[in-house]
Structures are given as structure tokens and as C-alpha cells.
Design goal:
Elements (H helix, E strand, L loop, with lengths): L2 H7 L4 H7 L12 E2 L2 H9 L8 E5 L5 H8 L5 E5 L2 H14 L3 E5 L15 E6 L5 H9 L7 E7 H7 L10 H9 E9 L4 E2 L6 E8 L9 H12 L6 H4 L5 H7 L13 H15 L1
Parallel strand pairs: 2-3, 2-5, 3-4, 5-6
Antiparallel strand pairs: 1-8, 6-9, 7-9
Length: about 280
Amino acid sequence: MSELSQKILGMQPLNTAIKEHQLSPRRSLGQNFIFDINLTRRIARSAKPLDTGTIIEIGAGPGGLTRALLIEGASQVIAIERDKRAIKILRELEKIAKPRLKVICADALELSLVELGEAPIKIVANLPFNIATRLIFKMLESTPPLSAITIMIQKEVANRLCAQPGSSAYGRLTLMINLLAQTDFLFDVPANAFIPRPKVVSSMVQVLPRKKPLFKTNKHALQKVLTTAFNQRRKMLRSSFKGLGGSELLEKAGINPEERPENLTLKDFCTLTDLIESNRL
């Protein structure tokens, strides 16, 4: 074990540090802390390799996962946290881990992530539930693309990200993410691992951004088509697209008008989108 790892493991326990700094979790910030070092180290390992480029942690909180990333060999970690109360605890870790750790007090939604460190850049984070989807799309819009995104999110959202056609979780989010990235469901994290305990189970997911979208379809137009389809997911597509041409439009796109949206592939929806856009020209 490295000297830095030994120093980190010898630091004041997180639960003690939180009490001293009066860092009670705030629901408005989506804060749920994990104190189990074995769990945070497992999360860190799921993002390996960590010893090249830059690891950016979003919503570092008091630093439970930050500690684990450094123990597991991360060569450069940038911890982003907007709560100034947590920054005080993170600064103590920063002093021990310099130059391998840099702490930034900011809102991740307002930062250009790819400009923060040396490539390849990976994201590792326990995302606040209330802004998780916004953060995921912000990360996927980074130019150049991020190397990998390993995140903990609400299980329901994780299922939607990784869903397959025909499943109840398959929908707009699944397809928009698939356009921009590949997804892999890693493992569940039980609610009792957190303080305070949330009402839902969380899951680890790895998202690998594509160098370019899987299809050249206009993203905004595709979003509208997906909204039209999935707002009435129990209805046949000929009903949902009645105002745009109904069965005739769908048949031109090579789609069975009696099909339901959860059974279509991303390619199907992109073909339909391109046809609708071409008819508008």
C-alpha cells in the first residue's frame, strides 16, 4: 500500500469530520453520504484504469469517494463540490494528497469539464438525483468527448439508460443516450449504504461517449419524434403520428403502423425523423 493510501486511511473518519463541521446533508442539494470505505473503493475500482489522465468527481461532498479514488491509484483527481461546508473537509484531504488532488468549489453545470485537466478525462460521481439527467447530457455534449463516465444514479434512471427494446423502461431517455453513448449496468447500491437513507435503490452505470452520434439525425427533431411516440406509448404508432401522416408516413419509413414505440430501434426512429424533416423542406 502506498504512503498516500496509508495517510488517507489514517485520517479522521468521515462521520466524525461531518459532525465537527456540522455538515448535515441537505435535501435541496441532493446530498446522501456514503461512509463505507469498502463500498467507495469498489465504486472507484469500477472506473479503472485510474492511473492515466484526469478523474473528475462531481458532487464530492465530504470526500468519501475522493478518498477511495486516491487509495485505488488515481494519479490526478479534480473534486468539484458546490457546498462550502463540504469544501472545508475536502481541503484537509487536498493538503495530504497534493498534487494528485485539486478541489474546486463550483456548480458542475456551469463548468467546461474538458478544460479542467489532461486527457483522457473520466467522470466518476455519485450524482444528485435532482439534476442527474441534466448532468449526464451535459457530459455527453463535451467536446472533445469524455473518455468514460462512471456514475451512481437512481436505479429507475439506470434501468432507463440501459434498457432494451420491448421493456417497460425503454423510452426517450434510452434512445437519446444510445445516440450519443454506449451504456453498461454495473451493480446496485442499497439504500442502507447512505446517510440519510434514501427511499430508493441506487445503481452504478458506466457510460462510454461515442466519438460522434450513432446516426446523423437532427437531435432536436429526434427528441420531438420520441416525445410524440412515447407520450402515448400504449397506443399504436399510427394513432400517435396521425397528425403527421399516420400509417402512410410510417409505412414510408418501413415501420409497421400497428407497432408500439417500445418495440422500435433507434435506427427506426432516426429514419422516421429524417423522413419527417425531409417532408418539411
